[in-house]
Amino acid sequence: MQPAQTNINTVPKIDQTKQTRHLPNKRKAGRLIVSYFFLTLAAVVMIVPFLWSLSTALKGKNEAIFSFPPNFIPENITLENFMTVWNTLPIPLYLWNSIILAFWGVILPLLFCSLAAFPLARMNFKGKNTVFLVILATMMIPGEVTMIPIYLILEKLGLIDSFAGVILPGAVSAFGIFLMRQAFLGIPKEIDESAIIDGARPWQIWWYILIPMVKPMLATLAILSFIGSWNNFLWPLLVLQDPNAYPLTVGLYDLKGTFVTDTRLVSAGAIIALIPILVVFMMFQNYFIKGAYSSAVKG
Amino acid sequence: MYKARHAWSFLLPAGILLTTFTLLPALAALGISFTNYNVFQPVEWVGLDNFKTAFQDEEFWSALRNTFYFWVLVTPALVVLPVFLAILVNQNLRAIKLYRLIYYFPALVSVVITAILWNWLFASDGIFNYLLSLVGVNPVDWLTSRKFVMPSLAMVTIWQGLGYYMLFYLAGLQSVPTDLYEAAELDGANFWQKHRHITFPMLKPIIFFTAVISTMSAFKEFTLMLTMTEGGPIGASKTVVYMVFEKAFKELEMGYASAISFILFIIILILTLLNKRTLDQET
Known about the structure:
CATH architecture of chain B: Orthogonal Bundle
Largest sheet of chain B: none
Distance between the termini of chain A: 12 Å
CATH class of the largest domain in chain A: Mainly Alpha
Order of helices and strands of chain A: HHHHHHHHHHHHHHH
Strand content of chain A: under 5%
CATH topology of chain B: MetI-like fold
Distance between the termini of chain B: 43 Å
Structural class of chain B: mainly alpha
Shape of chain B: globular
CATH class of chain B: Mainly Alpha
CATH superfamily of the largest domain in chain A: MetI-like
Number of strands of chain A: 0
Oligomer: heterodimer
Number of domains of chain A: 2
CATH topology of the largest domain in chain A: MetI-like fold
Number of helices of chain B: 12
Number of strands of chain B: 0
Largest interface: A-B, 109 and 95 residues
CATH superfamily of chain B: MetI-like
Helix content of chain A: 55-70%
Order of helices and strands of chain B: HHHHHHHHHHHH
Radius of gyration of chain B: 23 Å
Helix content of chain B: over 70%
């Protein structure tokens, strides 16, 4: 059950030329116009909320934000809102906190999931099926049920108001273990056998032989973990009490309170917070799309 | 070749974490829901009292109604609309990749930012009311009237989910053999006939998959309500999970909150099983 390896740039193309070859040119042109009309309409719907906030953030103090008709292009483009937000709120600190949280939020699942997946995919031992079933069962336990006990456990462990308290509850996912197990299953068993004959230890086989062979799946898991960690809002909100430890999501939630009346500043803050995810998305777009496909396997 | 102790040592870190943060909490939640645990008082076993209280609590029924209402608004839209989007982007056209990326991007935006973006659109003199004024309709209190708050929040959720579910359908569409469409076109089938008789039957498994996933997430939604409306006006957008959050972390009634979360879990479980049964029958 390999997750679909399709990604946005290498999807098998439906051969449109073949499909429409026998159509008259007029009909082909008409179809093209209709397609682009709907494509663009949908794109506008998706983009307008972003554009509107960007335009609001670029408007000066004297320009009305809510005017009839709405004015998308500011009369005088100014960056002062961005400067104000940057100077009033510890944005670099929030950003740094988000990066630290995302770093551990990516590294730990990669490590722990690929460790646990190794014996489940490539070893035979007593109790393997039971372990597997238990992991399967944890996938069905919903987050809203475990939310309260996890908080109480973190309290007992003294992890409230620490990054560890935000990171550890999500450091292993049953889904991640499954994903990595699928990847390990795809490697021929003979590789382990000959490595053992050559005197390799299990951790050497894992690290030097198997891990390099499952890099694409690791990348997919990394991206999925990154999105989850970067957008994590509830756990930082519940666990972190010191405002200096807030990641961007929680800091921004706070910002709504600080500048509650100043639409321009809140918009500027939202745009600042959007930039990192936009950059990462542009850089790794193929992995994002592939990650989304892979999460379909979860069902 | 490998020894059992090797297996267990590789499983150990993940095992400890899954036990501490998933297995134990799940058992604990069940236990807590039978107590009056509220942080201040000594813990007492109260049996089914919390569950009884829930079924007599008007606030709980209202939250349950809101949750079902939200589900009815969101899930059908997220099952149907992405199909059309997927059909659109499954064409070999120039810049089609860019369109796919644009549609998918909202799914990556955190709920806090989404709330900020949409608050401006819903403002009393925002874009939506301007569009309404163009067709001569009076302004609407999108987020502040009991009537419109849930449809407005549903709109945001649909906007965010369209591109995400589109990808699943796109994957499905790309496994439909092209010659089926060619044959249909030679027989003179139009757009609707082609998709009615070829696309939709082929997509059936994905349609049910989408229904299950979007049902689960609609029933669990509450961060959007927390960031956009704080459950208001007068509780009109307070969902069950929102109520769990409030009871547990604001009023510190952990026992009662756990009981409510369990009731919701049972409801989601039943709906998922029903969905699965329909799926098994249909395919």
